C-alpha cells in the first residue's frame, strides 16, 4: 500500500512537470515561472491567453483521456486476467472506429455525429463480445478470444469503408483513426474530466469485489459476490471510460494496454490497480503528446503515431523480458 501510494505521488509529480513543460514550449516559449504565474492569474495578458486559452485545454484533455484509458485497461485486464485484455485488443476501439467511419463516410456528419457514432459503435462491439462470450457466465479467456475475433472482423469493415471513401473523407477518417489531440478545447477537457470524475468513484466502489473476482468465479460466488452482475457493471464502466477517451481524442493505441502493466510493475501490487493505472495513462499520453508536438516541429504528428511507436517498443520489451524470465 505504501509503495502504491508513493508510485501514485511520483506519477502525479511527473504529470505536473510534463504539463508545465507542455504549457511553456511552442512557437511562443514561456518560462516555468511564467507558466505558473499565468495559471494563478498573475501573468501578462499575452502569456495568460496562450497558457489558459490555447495550451491548457489540450493538456487537461490529454491528462483526462489518458487516465480514462489507463483505468479502463486496468478493469478489462483484471476481468480477463490477461495482459492483452484491453479495449485496443478486444474490439471496443475497432467498434468505435467503424461507428465513426460510418458517420464520416456514409453520413457525412460533423464532430457531434462522429462522437455519437464512436460511442455507439464501441458499445455495440462490447455488447457483442460479451454476449458471444457468454456460456453460463462470461469467462475471461473467452472474452479475449471472442474480442480478438470481433476486432479482426471490424478491422475488415474499416478497410472496406476506407476503400470506398473519396479522398477528402479518407483523409478525415485516417486522421481520426490515428488519434489526435490537435485543436482540443475546453469542451473536450470538460467532458473528459467530468466523466472521469463521475466514473472513477464507481471503479473504487467495485474495487474489493473486483479483487474477489480475480480469485475465480466459484470462489467469488462462495464469498457472496454476484459474479455476473459485478462483471457487467465493471464492463459497462470500462466501456464508458474508453468511450469518453475515444470520443475526445480518437482510438489512441496502446495506452490502455501498457499503462496497467507498467503501473503493476512499479507498484508490485496484485489486482486491478485502477488509480496508479489511471495516473500512468495520464503521464504516458501527456508525454506522448508533447513528443508529437515537438519532435518534428513545426510539423505536428498525431499523438496516436507516438503511442503506437512506444507501444511497439513496449511489446518488444515485454516479450524479451518474458523470454529472459523463462
TrEMBL record:
GO terms for molecular function: transmembrane transporter activity. It is found in: Cell membrane. Its main location: membrane. The keyword Transcription regulation does not apply. Keywords: Cell membrane, Membrane, Transmembrane, Transmembrane helix, Transport. SUPFAM superfamilies: ABC transporter involved in vitamin B12 uptake, BtuC. It holds the Pfam family FecCD. GO terms for cellular component: plasma membrane. One of its GO terms (biological process) is siderophore-iron import into cell. It comes from the Bacteria. It is a multi-pass membrane protein. The keyword Cell membrane applies. The chain crosses the membrane at residues 59-77, 89-108, 114-134, 141-163, 183-206, 232-254, 301-320. Gene3D superfamilies: ABC transporter involved in vitamin B12 uptake, BtuC. InterPro entries: ABC_BtuC-like, ABC_transptr_permease_BtuC. PANTHER family: FERRIC ENTEROBACTIN TRANSPORT SYSTEM PERMEASE PROTEIN, FERRIC ENTEROBACTIN TRANSPORT SYSTEM PERMEASE PROTEIN FEPG. Belongs to the binding-protein-dependent transport system permease family. FecCD subfamily. This is ABC transporter permease. It comes from Phytohabitans houttuyneae.
Amino acid at each position: 500500500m505504501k509503495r502504491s501510494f508513493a508510485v501514485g505521488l511520483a506519477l502525479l509529480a511527473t504529470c505536473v512537470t510534463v504539463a508545465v513543460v507542455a504549457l511553456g514550449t511552442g512557437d511562443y516559449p514561456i518560462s516555468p515561472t511564467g507558466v505558473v504565474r499565468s495559471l494563478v492569474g498573475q501573468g501578462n495578458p499575452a502569456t495568460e491567453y496562450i497558457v489558459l486559452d490555447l495550451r491548457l485545454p489540450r493538456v487537461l484533455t490529454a491528462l483526462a483521456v489518458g487516465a480514462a484509458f489507463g483505468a479502463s485497461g486496468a478493469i478489462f485486464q483484471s476481468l480477463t486476467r490477461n495482459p492483452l485484455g484491453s479495449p485496443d485488443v478486444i474490439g471496443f476501439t475497432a467498434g468505435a472506429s467503424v461507428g465513426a467511419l460510418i458517420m464520416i463516410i456514409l453520413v457525412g456528419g460533423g464532430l457531434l455525429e462522429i462522437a455519437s457514432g464512436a460511442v455507439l459503435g464501441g458499445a455495440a462491439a462490447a455488447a457483442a463480445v460479451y454476449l458471444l462470450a457468454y456460456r453460463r457466465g462470461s469467462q475471461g479467456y473467452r472474452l479475449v478470444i471472442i474480442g480478438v475475433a470481433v476486432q479482426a472482423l471490424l478491422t475488415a469493415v474499416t478497410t472496406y469503408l476506407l476503400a470506398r471513401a473519396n479522398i477528402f473523407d479518407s483523409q478525415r477518417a485516417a486522421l481520426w483513426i490515428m488519434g489526435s489531440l490537435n485543436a482540443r478545447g475546453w469542451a473536450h477537457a470538460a467532458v473528459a474530466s467530468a466523466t472521469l470524475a463521475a466514473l472513477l468513484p464507481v471503479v473504487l466502489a467495485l474495487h474489493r469485489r473486483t479483487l474477489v473476482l480475480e480469485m475465480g468465479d466459484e470462489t467469488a460466488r462462495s464469498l457472496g459476490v454476484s459474479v455476473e452482475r459485478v462483471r457487467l457493471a465493471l464492463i459497462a464502466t470500462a466501456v464508458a471510460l474508453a468511450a469518453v477517451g475515444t470520443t475526445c481524442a480518437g482510438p489512441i493505441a496502446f495506452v490502455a494496454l501498457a499503462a496497467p502493466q507498467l503501473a503493476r510493475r512499479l507498484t508490485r501490487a496484485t489486482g486491478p490497480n485502477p488509480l496508479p493505472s489511471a495516473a500512468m495513462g495520464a503521464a504516458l499520453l501527456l508525454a506522448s503528446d508533447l513528443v508529437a508536438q515537438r519532435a518534428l516541429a513545426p510539423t505536428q504528428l498525431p499523438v496516436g503515431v507516438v503511442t503506437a511507436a512506444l507501444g511497439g517498443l513496449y511489446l518488444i520489451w515485454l516479450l524479451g523480458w518474458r523470454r529472459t524470465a523463462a
